[in-house]
Amino acid sequence: MRLISIGDNTGKNAMVGISAYFKKRKKVEEEKEYDSKRIVKTTINTHFDRLLKNTGNDETKLYDQLLKEDPEIDLKVEGKFVEGLHYTYISKENELASGISFEEQIFDSKGLLLEERNYNPNEANIQNENFPIRWSGITIPLKEAGRRYIFSHTYQLFHVNGLTFSFLYDMAKELEEKQVAMFVGGGLDGREPIVLTKGGKKYRGFMTGQTKASTGYKLLLHLTEIDLEDYR
Question: Where are the alpha helices (DSSP H) in the chain?
Fold first, then answer.
């Protein structure tokens, strides 16, 4: 079970469960079993850049080849199942690259580049009991949050025992009654970015909640990759 340390606006915190959130879909009449597989989509030799280079960067000639000969398809390789993958970096000329260094780019809410710097792997902070992911006290109406921000990930929080049920239920109920999204984050004041895994991206988070009488709740953590100046 994946866990996250969550704190509310009263100073209480607890370690609770977290999982990716998927909306329920109606069941189809005929239930079928499905299995996810990785397949080869294309190769270096059939990539558009390589094909264009083979024609001397003559786009007209390449388009004629695509219509007549289908050079972009390798029938011996494409569509095969693959397992045990690992990353390999290549240059723009499709040659193996070594001595790679990474840079990090910081953008504002309007998509403007704010800063470029050397990339340093981020440490995960979702299981730090001393500095849990906590409420910042800053809220935004639900409709306004949906209009202003693009959320790339949504996670659902769930209790691991009776005590954490009450803890999460009360949080969800308060957010539901006020019809707001609460800005959440790490650090002392809840304004630091959220990092799910070591070396992972930094996210800004908002929490929303729903309840059903006294028997159920839905507490969601919505993450955006946009750096939010208003919440630093």
Answer: 48-54, 59-68, 142-148, 162-178
pLDDT in tens, 59-105: 999 999 989 888 888 888 888 888 877 878 888 777 888 888 888 88
The verdict on residue 212 lying in a domain is yes
Structural domain count of the chain: 1
Residues 139-185 have pLDDT tens digits of 999 999 988 888 999 999 999 999 999 999 999 999 999 999 999 99
**Which pTM does this prediction carry?**
0.64
Q: What backbone torsions phi and psi does residue 142 show, to the nearest 5 degrees?
A: -55, -45
CATH number, domain containing residue 166: 2.40.290
> Is 111 a member of any domain?
no
Phi, psi of 48 (to 5 degrees): -55, -45
Dist. CA 43–CA 17, nearest whole Å: 40
- Determine, yes or no, domain membership for 165: yes
The answer to whether residues 191 and 205 touch, using CB atoms and an 8 Å cutoff, is no
